[in-house]
Each structure stands twice: as C-alpha cells, then as structure tokens.
Write a structure and sequence with these properties.
Chain A is an alpha/beta fold. Chain A has 20 helices and seven strands. The chains are: A alpha/beta (431), B mainly alpha (424).
C-alpha cells in the first residue's frame, strides 16, 4: 500500500498529496517532504496550518528553509510567525528590510487591517513607460510577489492609483503610466477594522485594496485574504446561532463534551429555578389541567418569532445603511401583525380541537381565549426581546450574536409561561 | 448633475437616490458603458425595474458591454421575450443560453466566459500575442486556460507567461488546477477555492471541456448569498426589501402557521396522558425543562450535521461517531445532576406523593432518554433528506423542533406513567 501511496505527486494533485501527508506518520512525512522541490515547498506551505508548518519546517534542509522564508508570501509568513513556536528563530532568518516590515505588521492587533496586509507588492512610478515596467517585472520581480495589480506612485512616493498588469501589457511600449492608470477610488488605513476591509472589498474592488498611511502605500489587502476572513466570520455567525461556539471539526468527543456541557448545565439549573418559581401557579394548574396541552405551543411560538426578529436584526447590523429607529418600527409592526394573526388562528384551532377532545363548548371557548390571549402578549414581548437584546449587546460593545444563547431562550420561555399562567389565574378568579 | 468619474458602486447608490422620472431622463443620455458599469451593483430585487427604465435601443448596447456573468445575472431576471431578444444580440448567445439553462444552485450558472484560452502546443510568444489582441474584450486576463483538443489541461498565470522564454510551449509551463463540474453545488466550489488558494476555479462540463471560470470575486458574492440563505433558513425569516411591513409579515407567517399545524399531533399526544398530569400537576412545571434541553441539544447537532453534509462529506461518519459518544456522556452527566437537583427541589417543596426521590428519578431518566434520542433524530433527518435529494437545510425549520418535542413529550409522560402510575 505504501508503495502505491508514495506515488501521489504534489505537482499533479496537491490536494490528495496533502490529505495523504496529514494522515501519515512522522517518518513518512519527512520522507514525503524530501520529494518536494523548493518551489513546491512554498506552495505546500500555503496550504497547511500553523502546527504543520512548524513541524515541516523543522525537517527541511538549511537551504530550503532560507528559500522558503525569503519567498513565502508575506501575509502567510506573518500568520505563521504570529502563532509559531519558532517565532524568534524565524524572525532572525529574515533579511533586514523584510524583518522590519513583518515586525511592524505583527504589532497590529489581529482585528486590524494592518495585521493581515501583504507587503509583497509592486509599486511603480507614474513617469515610467509601459515598456520599462514590463522589463522591470520580467527581470527583477520575484514570481511570488503579488503583481496582478501594480501600484502607481508619484515622485514623492505618494500613492496615485493602480494599473493592472494586463493593462501594462496591452499598452504601447512608450505609453507613460500616468496617462493610463486608474485613480484611487477607495483605500484602507492599517488601523481600520477588518470588517471595514471586508465591506470595502465587497462593494468596491474585489481584487486588491491599498493600505495607506500618511498618503504612502504600506501594504495591500487582496481578495483571497478577504475570502478566508468572510468564510470564517459566516461560519462563526452560523455556529453562534446554533450555540456551538468555538466548534472545531477536529475536536474529540471529550473536548466537544467539555465545551457544551457548561451551558447545558446552566440551562438545567435555570430551568429548575423557573419550575420552582412557576409553582406559585400550582393551584391554578391543578384546577385546569387542560392548560398543559398548550404549553408547548406557547413556548414554541414565542421562541420562533423571537428567533426571526433576532436573526433579522443580526443580519441587518452588517448593513451600513442600518437605522435602528426604522428597523425597530418595521420589525415591531411585523411582529404585531403576525402575533395577531396567529392568536386569532389559535383561538379557532384550540376551540375546535378541544371540542374534538370532548370538552364542553364554554370550556373550550374559555381555554381558547386564554391561550390566544397569552400568545398575543407573549409573542409581542418575545419579538421585542429578540430585537432589543442584540442591539443592547452591541451598544455595550459585546458581540450581538450572543443574544441567541440559551439564557435568552430560557428567559423567553419563562416570560411566556408567566403570562400564560397569570392570564389563566385571572380567568379563574373572575369566573 | 451626476459626475461619472467614480466607482460603479457609488454611482449606483447615487442614481438610485433619484426619482424615477429623473432616472428615465438620465438614462436617455447616459453612455452605455457607464450603465454597464453601475448596473451590476444594483440589488437583484430592483435590477429589472431599473433596467427597464432604459430606452429599448440602449438595452442591447448595455448588455453587450457587460461582463458575461453579469449578463447572465440580468437575463435570468428578465421576462422571457425580452430575454430572448437581448440574447440574440449577444456574441456569445449559444454559450450564454446554455448557462441560463443550468440550475441557479449549481456553480455552472455563475461562470464567467470572458477568459483567454490557448492550445497546449502554443508557444509563450503566440499566447502573449493572442492575449494582447483579445484583452480589451476579456474580464479575466491574469490567467490563461490551456486545453488539448478542447479538453481542459491546466492554467498559466500571466506573470509566469511574461517570464517565460518566447519559444517555450505551454505544456512545459502549465500548472495543475483543481476544477469542478458545472452541476456541482456552490458550496463545493467555495470549499475548493478555500482549501486550494487558487484565484480561479475552472468549471468543466462532463466532457472535461471548460465551460467558464469562477473568479474569487464571484465567489465572494456567492459566498455571501449562500451564507445569508443558510442563516435565513435557520431563523425561518428572510431579509426583505419589501416596501410595506404587511408584505414582509406575510413572508414570515407560513413558518409560524406551520408551528401551529405541527402542534396538533402534540396536543393529541399530551391528551393521552392527562390522567397522570392531573394527579401529578408538578409534571407540568418540568415540561419546559425537558423540551428545552432536548431542543437545545438537537439544534447543535443539526447545525453540525448540516455543515458536514455540505462541506466535509468524507468526515461525516467520523463526526457521527464522535457526536454519539459526546451525546452519551452529556446525557448521563445531565441526568445525574438533575437527579440531585430535583431531589433537593422536591425535598424543599416537601413532596409526599410522589416522593422527592421518585420524582427526581422520573425527570432524570426522561432527560437521559431524550438527550440520547434527540441527537440521533437531529442527525438522521438531514441525512435522510439529503439522500432523498431534498435540501437538508429545511430540517432546520420547525419540522425538527416539532419532531423533537413530540419525542420528548412521549418519553417524559411515558416514563412518568411507568414510574408513578402504579403509585397513584
């Protein structure tokens, strides 16, 4: 089997090489590493995670190590150095200029544009001709540099705009760049939040955006950085909504258990306390046991409508046209209409069903009224909870998605049931 | 007066601020390439309305100036007669018609066809010449797609092409690229782009011929749409640009009504157990605990299963095994804690019949059973749906919640009847 396996060529099929490599034992891994050329090593390093990078690096020849450090794209390199066990060793391997660049990038917090920017770009002078630029690129620039877009500077090194490599290729050899480049439409600052970079990339330029400090180009953000960032953030949102924070597909059963147990445990305690509190209604309940039949409906409805309001609020928060006032007004109206329609439907439903189950007409009607009234109030409250929780969390600079957590769900349940049982108690007292 | 010297996105925002009358007036005189520049940035819901405000004579011109994937996006939205008319005017009508036929949820429907291709035997000089000649009409210029008698072979990046000696043949410089088929899902395509760090994804038909290319910027848009769609399915509500809140409300109503309808079997089920509830009223107070805990666990497992179903298909079996073990551990720990907790609760409340121990046993064993069963349901339902070729994501709606609720109620009251029935 191992004979057949070793034939997997990285050049022909990098993906299967990598999945084979990741499952292999240490000895086999080092053997496989030796089959890669220097160029392939670079490609290989862009495809594996930090842990594997550290491991593989250890087993490379001195020469390959040097080549790798010199040519690995700067954003990959920074990511690696930031989390590597060998941080200090790796830094000493860099040449002075690159080390200076990378240390600067490392100083930015991971949520800032500065921390993800790439510094292997090509900047050109506006006075140069297309022919000069092409010659420069063909003879001087390393093929690992990002050069689909070239950055155009004036004589004082201020950034004027950009031009794509293909434009340079198409232009006549003696055309001056200043006559053909595209002026800057958008740019970022190293201290901008990464979410701003995502927004700008989605709206303006899906190739590369300049990062500018004092009108000087200090780095670029490219679409593949944003792509990864976006995938991660969507996955995170989805996971938060499903209450599987920090979920990692590689986790073993025991790790999953440890991560999920705490809040299930908390939910258990709170629910017991809820039951304890609700037992003040025990007298009412023992007189109208039919109420229990509708308990799941009350809980389910307020849960659902609150999830709708909450989810839409979370989605809207990402929109830069978002206005809290308008959003609240519209969502409250939507919630009201649906609560009203559902309560009326429920009245008809529950009356019919109770009749089928053999209750008297008056009793069916009375319980129907109680249930639908509770739904009306409960769903209205739940809508507001779903709307306000994320907005409040956002105001206090907390993550709004936390609002989808189990505590809020339990709070929803609790309020719903208190309303339900209170209304039932009032009815009992009156009649 | 609007200045056109700005990005298409800003231009679109500014033009949409104008009244419809002013827009129509503006569209009479606007250059068609400026229109082709901003139209792709108009949101899908209003794109057709905006496009129809252009004079008919201009519409053809605009379409001819737009990138092929933007053309497909627009044509897909237009009414049939106009679509066919505009299609006929397009140079690439045959291939665009083919793309329009593909299902919107497959990756083939979103490809860009304005790329440069070359035979595997062509030399670097020939390819460079071809590229320079075609470039003004292309969208994708940074990568050249290489084929051998129409079968896709690989790519050569422009920057490598420039550094290659003039007489070197493409076969000696081409790079292997991961590809996907036109009928693959969007999720799969995104997954490939994520794991490979390619900037392009060639999309092939089943004859291994290149249909078109998904560029990273297309993928960014697709990713956003897919993610929002998944999210919307999970919350059973959709972001709407509906002008009136009444319409938006009606859009969300079906799911709520569904909850009501699905509630009917639950009601009949609980009704079967009314006698035990009448005798032990406190059972009612703990129903939310049982249903809530089962629901919480099920939501988690469902989300994990859905993510695995779309992405790491190969790891599904391993995930299922891990999740089952996790569920076992969670089930027993929670049951154990509940036993102690409810016992204390019962003692404080001074339970007579059932005794605190009996009652805590009922709750603990119900919890243990529901916590074992609900993850299994939450895994099986989406997998079954998928094998029936139904979108597994619909499971995240009220269906699964109701199914879990019914199971939990059945377990809870059966256990109660079994353990307490004889006592009373």
């Amino acid at each position: 089997m191992s004979l057949k396996q070793t034939k997997i060529s990285f050049k022909r099929n990098p993906q299967s090489f990598i999945s084979y490599y990741l499952d292999a034992k240490t000895q086999e891994k080092t053997k496989q590493l030796k089959t890669l050329s220097q160029k392939e090593i670079i490609h290989f390093f862009t495809l594996i995670d930090i842990k594997e990078k550290d491991f593989s690096y250890k087993h490379l020849s001195l020469q390959t190590k040097r080549f790798l450090i010199k040519h690995l794209p700067s954003d990959e390199l920074v990511q690696w150095i930031r989390h590597s066990e060998y941080q200090s060793i790796l830094l000493t391997q860099l040449d002075v200029q690159k080390k200076h660049h990378i240390e600067k990038i490392l100083m930015y917090h991971e949520t800032r544009v500065g921390s993800m920017m790439q510094v292997d770009y090509v900047s050109i002078n506006a006075n140069q001709t297309a022919g000069e630029i092409l010659n420069y690129i063909i003879s001087e620039v390393s093929e690992y540099t990002y050069m689909d877009v070239l950055w155009v500077l004036d004589n004082e090194h201020k950034l004027l705009g950009k031009i794509s490599l293909s434009q340079v290729l198409i232009a006549r050899k003696n055309t001056k760049i200043e006559n053909v480049y595209l002026p800057l439409t958008t740019f970022l600052h190293p201290n901008d939040d990464i979410t701003q970079a995502v927004q700008k990339m989605m709206n303006y330029d899906k190739e590369a955006i300049a990062v500018i400090e004092n009108e000087r180009l200090v780095g670029i953000i490219t679409s593949d950085d944003i792509f990864d960032e976006l995938i991660d953030s969507y996955e995170e949102d989805f996971q938060k909504l499903a209450n599987i924070h920090h979920f990692d597909a590689g986790d073993k059963s025991i790790e999953r258990y440890k991560k999920r147990m705490p809040w299930l445990f908390i939910a258990l305690i709170i629910n017991t306390m809820v039951a304890f509190t609700l037992s003040i209604f025990e007298n009412t309940l023992s007189q109208v046991t039919l109420l229990v039949l509708f308990q799941p409906l009350i809980l389910g409805m307020s849960g659902n409508i609150s999830t709708q309001a909450l989810g839409i609020t979370l989605l809207s928060l990402d929109d830069h046209h978002f206005s809290i006032k308008k959003h609240l007004k519209k969502e409250r109206q939507i919630g009201m209409i649906n609560a009203l329609i559902i309560s009326i439907l429920t009245l008809v439903f529950s009356f019919t069903l109770l009749m089928i189950l053999g209750s008297s007409t008056i009793q069916s009607f009375l319980i129907g009224i109680q249930v639908s009234l509770s739904l009306l109030v409960g769903m209205t409250v739940a809508t507001n909870l779903g709307l306000l929780m994320p907005l409040m969390l956002k105001k206090f600079k907390k993550d709004p998605a936390v609002a989808s957590g189990p505590l809020i769900a339990t709070l929803n349940d609790f309020i719903g049931l208190v309303i339900y049982f209170s209304i039932a108690t009032i009815f009992l007292a009156i009649l | 007066m609007i200045s056109y010297d700005k990005h298409g996105y800003d231009l679109a925002e500014e033009i949409l601020e104008l009244s419809i009358k002013n827009q129509k007036a503006l569209f009479k005189t606007i250059e068609s390439d400026i229109a082709a520049d901003f139209l792709p940035y108009v949101e899908a819901q209003i794109k057709v309305q905006v496009f129809l405000r252009f004079p008919i004579s201009k519409q053809k011109e605009i379409v001819s100036k737009m990138a092929s994937d933007d053309v497909v996006d627009l044509l897909r939205l237009l009414p049939e007669p106009l679509k066919n008319k505009l299609l006929k005017a397009n140079d690439d009508q045959i291939i665009i018609a083919k793309i329009l036929e593909l299902d919107e949820h497959t990756i083939g429907a979103h490809v860009n066809i304005d790329y440069c291709d070359a035979e595997i035997t062509a030399s670097a000089k020939e390819v460079t010449k071809k590229l320079i000649k075609e470039a003004p009409y292309l969208d994708i210029v940074d990568t050249i797609f290489i084929h051998e008698s129409h079968v896709f072979k690989g790519v050569v990046e422009l920057k490598h092409l420039l550094k290659t000696q003039a007489d070197v043949k493409m076969i000696d410089v081409l790079n292997h690229y991961e590809t996907c088929y036109e009928d693959d899902s969007i999720d799969k395509a995104i997954h490939i782009l994520k794991t490979t760090n390619q900037k392009m994804l060639p999309v092939l038909n089943h004859k291994q011929q290149l249909l078109g290319v998904i560029t990273l910027d297309d993928a960014l848009d697709l990713l956003e749409e897919e993610a929002i769609e998944d999210f919307e399915k999970m919350i059973t509500a959709r972001m709407s640009n509906e002008s009136t809140f009444v319409r938006a409300a009606f859009q969300r109503l079906p799911w709520l009504v569904m909850v009501l309808v699905l509630f009917i079997p639950m009601l009949f089920l609980s009704h079967q157990f009314e006698s035990i509830i009448e005798k032990v009223v406190v059972l009612m107070l703990f129903q939310p605990l049982i249903l809530g805990t089962a629901g919480n666990v099920a939501t988690q497992i469902l989300a994990i299963t859905l993510q695995n179903l779309t992405k790491d298909h190969s790891k599904l079996n391993r995930t299922i095994k891990k999740e089952l073990i996790t569920s076992f551990m969670i089930s027993f720990s929670i049951a154990f804690v509940a036993l102690i907790f409810i016992f204390i609760y019962g003692s404080i409340r001074g339970f007579q019949t059932p005794s605190p121990l009996e009652f805590s046993l009922v709750i603990a064993s119900s919890l243990a059973l529901t916590l074992l069963l609900s993850p299994i349901i939450a895994m099986l339902v989406p997998i079954t749906l998928k094998s029936l070729k139904i979108d597994p994501a619909i499971a995240s709606g009220p269906f699964i919640t109701t199914l879990i609720d019914i199971t939990a109620i059945l377990i809870y009251f059966s256990v109660a009847t079994l353990l307490l029935g004889a006592l009373l």
